[in-house]
Amino acid sequence: MGLNIHGEGFSLLLCLVLVSAPGAWSWSKEGHVLTCRIAQDLLEPAAAEAVQNLLPPYVDGDLSALCVWPDQIRHWYKYRWTSPLHFIDTPDDACSFDYARDCHGPKGLEDMCVAGAISNFTMQLMHYREGSSDRRYNLTESLLFLSHFMGDVHQPMHVGFTSDKGGNTIDLRWFRHKSNLHHVWDREIILTSLADFYGKDMDALQEDLHKNFTAGIWSDDISSWGDCDNLFSCPVKYAQESISLACKYGYGGVTEGETLSDDYFNSRMPIVMKRIAQGGVRLAMALNRVFGEHNQDIPRPT
Ligand SMILES: *[C@@H]1O[C@H](CO)[C@@H](O)[C@H](O)[C@H]1NC(C)=O
Ligand SMILES: *[C@@H]1O[C@H](CO)[C@@H](O)[C@H](O)[C@H]1NC(C)=O
Ligand SMILES: *[C@@H]1O[C@H](CO)[C@@H](O)[C@H](O)[C@H]1NC(C)=O
């Protein structure tokens, strides 16, 4: 039963898992939902149709309903191999990401990190256009993994230092409650924004994000978000951006045990929001390219 994504059983299971796993290591549910909603809105017809076809019927064509799925199954026996794919550990204080040096899982398994996973699942989805005769991959899973990991690679602290597990062991307070540096970036900043500025309304936040990359603060910047050459170099670039941001704004100025409040929130919120938007826009670009007519490369700016 646990492995069946179709039907009521899975939905119920999904709810139970969501309730019982508050500490997942990933953008909060909200972060992933926003990334996927932004992406799905930007899909061209061919990609929109492919996504629709790959999703199980009970989500009614809504990709964002399953964007947290990879967090829910990562501890299941069958999917334990996916656990290292959510992040990258870089050497302490190096503030850089080097694919050959850093992209590996436990026991040095090559490519087992979030950048390698994005290339992997993008490549698998390229088989979609060959038709359903190719059963090597489960393309529904490939789509959900790609959509989730595109979010994760944009969360700066998912490309963090090895010894503190991306900030997970740096305990501190977020306003009045206990948290840690990783969680501040996964969820606290997003949840505080939602509560303070958007009346906890995800649609309102999504609209504001959309406005900011179409006509607002990021509208000049957005054409450069697609600047990278291919399947392998694009996720490497996203990961390099993340570790730079993690060093400067995540770890920067933070001492274990301190209380983070307004100053940290106000200065970091714009970064979190931009990363969510970038994740969404780039996921759309990848899917449009993969399911479109010319599916050889990840998009270049046109
Ligand atoms: C593909 O994966 C999904 C999610 O794990 C599963 O529900 C579905 O049955 C799989 N499809 C095939 C053809 O194995
Ligand atoms: C790529 O996906 C396959 C499953 O389809 C998996 O066995 C392999 O470990 C994955 N590799 C990476 C780097 O994600
Ligand atoms: C959108 O941009 C405005 C500034 O024009 C800023 O105040 C707001 O926080 C931004 N919203 C998001 C979600 O980034």
Automatic annotation (TrEMBL):
<keyword id="KW-0378">Hydrolase</keyword>
<dbReference type="GO" id="GO:0006308">
    <property type="term" value="P:DNA catabolic process"/>
</dbReference>
<comment type="similarity">
    <text>Belongs to the nuclease type I family.</text>
</comment>
<dbReference type="GO" id="GO:0004521">
    <property type="term" value="F:RNA endonuclease activity"/>
</dbReference>
<keyword id="KW-0732">Signal</keyword>
<dbReference type="GO" id="GO:0046872">
    <property type="term" value="F:metal ion binding"/>
</dbReference>
<keyword id="KW-0479">Metal-binding</keyword>
<dbReference type="GO" id="GO:0000014">
    <property type="term" value="F:single-stranded DNA endodeoxyribonuclease activity"/>
</dbReference>
<dbReference type="InterPro" id="IPR003154">
    <property type="entry name" value="S1/P1nuclease"/>
</dbReference>
<dbReference type="Pfam" id="PF02265">
    <property type="entry name" value="S1-P1_nuclease"/>
</dbReference>
<protein>
    <recommendedName>
        <fullName>Aspergillus nuclease S1</fullName>
        <ecNumber>3.1.30.1</ecNumber>
    </recommendedName>
</protein>
<keyword id="KW-0540">Nuclease</keyword>
<keyword id="KW-0325">Glycoprotein</keyword>
<keyword id="KW-1015">Disulfide bond</keyword>
<dbReference type="GO" id="GO:0003676">
    <property type="term" value="F:nucleic acid binding"/>
</dbReference>
<keyword id="KW-0255">Endonuclease</keyword>
<dbReference type="InterPro" id="IPR008947">
    <property type="entry name" value="PLipase_C/P1_nuclease_dom_sf"/>
</dbReference>
<feature type="signal peptide">
    <location>
        <begin position="1"/>
        <end position="26"/>
    </location>
</feature>
